[in-house]
Q: What sequence folds into this?
């Protein structure tokens, strides 16, 4: 499981996807979220604006991440 460290109160799902290099630009995030298998805290997620807080667990296509 990889850690994603943040310095603010929260980060959005779209920001994490872009930060991790899964898409080249923010404009590609919407389609990525709709077409990939993404869960946040064991719940299917398709909102790129979903706020993620420290302790949240994200699985994107079988790759696991935790917000720290």
A:
């Amino acid at each position: 499981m990889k850690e994603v460290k943040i310095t603010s109160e929260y980060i959005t799902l779209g920001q994490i996807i872009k930060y991790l290099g899964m898409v080249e630009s923010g404009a590609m995030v919407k389609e990525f979220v709709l077409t990939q298998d993404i869960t946040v805290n064991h719940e299917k997620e398709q909102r790129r604006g979903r706020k993620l807080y420290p302790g949240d667990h994200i699985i994107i296509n079988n790759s696991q991440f935790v917000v720290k």
